TrEMBL record:
Residues annotated as domain Gfo/Idh/MocA-like oxidoreductase N-terminal: 39-166
Superkingdom to which the source organism belongs: Bacteria
Species of the source: Stakelama saccharophila
SUPFAM superfamilies in alphabetical order: Glyceraldehyde-3-phosphate dehydrogenase-like, C-terminal domain, NAD(P)-binding Rossmann-fold domains
Transmembrane segments: none
Domain Gfo/Idh/MocA-like oxidoreductase bacterial type C-terminal span(s) in chain numbering: 209-268
Pfam families: GFO_IDH_MocA (PF01408), GFO_IDH_MocA_C2 (PF19051)
Annotated protein name in UniProt: Gfo/Idh/MocA family oxidoreductase
Length: 468
């Protein structure tokens, strides 16, 4: 019997998800020949896409899709326009790859793609991922996984129905050694029972809380219609949206919470197993108003997200008992905990503080540099054995972990089964912000129970031709 290359890759990926048996172990130790390299495409090839693909140059990069190829070229030069030596291999791969403005055309035309990296603005994530998965392609999707709660559930259902597809969200801290040790220490009782968590970030570091600017002429070669994609707003081009700055604008991104929550909230959700939040309230500074509301679709009248937010999550169904988690962005932080060891500080860039019945634990954004606070906490932590596997390359190995999982060599670190509930938790903070009042949430039903009208914020409408 002859097995084609794609069937082998799919079978290997399925094998990687099974419990290891002696027969299975032979497959897992198999060294793929050069011809078994994964054929990759990237959607959103500049910016974060280039950062992801730089770690994947050992594979075959066969195609890329980006509505602004001139922006992609900027990924290979520094601020002075000089070539970045460390990206020469990626540049050579990009130069050889087929190029498209519209990923719909790429996915329709190329039949040799095995897997796709998606690093677009948030409004495209679910649409691009669903298209790729429906074509039998493995997907690596940047965080936040989706723009809305309902999109996450659609992707999760698709992943469950196609277990041979290897899915990964780009929250690289999930593959980090320090972050995995944090989870082990918390689960092992190093600081006792945790009922209170504080999470903070210095984001936004892009424009937020500002009014929408007037449209400018679209730069030559930039397909603005494709960049808008599923979004229903009729906004013209402005550099205040593209490229990096889209994160702060409601039709395109998910603000600071969507940008950094996947890194920071990941660890308390992973370690404490709280389930979905049951009550959420977001306090915030003023929204940046859309000065041209007649041009905007209903529900998109707000322009940029508030500059500062504080979101209170209550997890009433947490495994170990109710948990409260407070999110701070825009530079706000919780009070400094008493008893910090000499030299330890709360990093303004971001961190997580767990308050336990027998001490406290604090770490940085990606789970790094954990600090134990309280008498006996360090000793208890030292006695807790390793229980989670370590990922080759730690944080820097997150992309190749996905490749190795596709090849059947190991389990994937942050599949959609993990990423979807985490993303849903984050996005519910934005839903509460839009609702303007506390919301009570039935996670099993995926429904807000106390403010019926707020349920519309769990989903969205799509522009024709870009439907989910």
């Amino acid at each position: 019997m002859t097995i084609d290359r794609r069937s082998w890759l799919k079978g290997a990926a399925a094998t990687a998800g099974m419990a290891a048996t002696p027969a299975c172990a032979v497959v897992l130790r198999r060294g793929p020949a050069p011809s078994d390299r994964v054929n990759l495409a990237v959607i959103g090839a500049g910016g974060m896409g280039a950062a992801n693909m730089e770690r994947l140059t050992s594979q075959n990069i066969v195609a890329l899709a980006d509505p602004d190829l001139s922006h992609v070229t900027k990924a290979f030069v520094d601020g002075r326009g000089a070539p970045i030596a460390g990206r020469a291999v990626l540049k050579a791969a990009y130069d050889k790859a087929d190029k498209y403005a519209d990923y719909r055309r790429m996915l329709g035309a190329r039949k040799d793609i095995d897997a796709v990296v998606i690093a677009t603005p948030d409004q495209h994530h679910a649409v691009a991922a669903k298209m790729a998965m429906e074509r039998g392609l493995h997907v690596y999707v940047q965080k936040p996984l989706t723009y809305t709660v309902r999109e996450g559930r659609v992707l999760n259902d698709l992943a469950r129905g196609n277990p041979r597809l290897v899915t990964q969200m780009g929250n690289q801290g999930h593959s980090g050694d320090d972050g995995r040790r944090v989870v082990e220490m918390l689960r092992g009782g190093a600081i006792g029972d945790v009922r209170e968590v504080h999470v903070w970030t210095n984001r936004p570091v892009w424009p937020q809380g500002v009014a929408r600017p007037a449209a400018q002429p679209t730069p030559a070669g930039f397909d603005w219609d494709v960049w808008l994609g599923p979004s229903t707003v009729g906004w013209g081009y402005n550099p205040l949206y593209a490229h990096f700055n889209w994160r702060g604008w409601a039709p395109f991104g998910c603000g600071a919470l969507g940008d950094m929550g996947a890194h920071l909230i990941d660890f308390p959700v992973w370690a404490l197993e709280p389930g979905l939040p049951t009550r959420i309230e977001t306090r915030h500074s003023a929204w940046g108003e859309n000065e041209r509301p007649a041009e905007a679709a209903e529900g998109d009248r707000r322009g940029s997200y508030p500059l500062v937010t504080v979101t209170h999550f209550e997890f009433g169904n947490a495994t170990g008992g109710p948990v409260k988690l407070t999110w701070y962005d825009g530079g706000l932080m919780p009070p400094t905990p008493r008893g910090l060891p000499p030299g330890a500080t709360m990093k303004p860039e971001g961190g997580v503080l767990y308050v336990g019945s027998r001490g406290k634990l604090m770490h940085e954004t990606y789970g790094q540099n954990p600090v134990l606070i309280g008498d006996g906490a360090a000793g208890r932590a030292a006695a807790i054995p390793q229980s989670l596997p370590r990922i080759q390359g730690s944080i820097d190995g997150h992309e190749m972990n996905w490749i190795r999982a596709i090849r059947g060599e190991e389990k994937v670190s942050s599949p959609f089964a993990v990423a979807v509930p985490l993303t849903e938790t984050m996005l519910l903070g934005i839903v509460a912000m839009r609702a303007g009042q506390p919301i009570e949430y039935d996670g099993a039903a995926g429904r807000i129970t106390n403010v019926a009208d707020a349920n519309r914020y769990l989903g969205r409408t799509y522009r024709k031709g870009w439907e989910l």
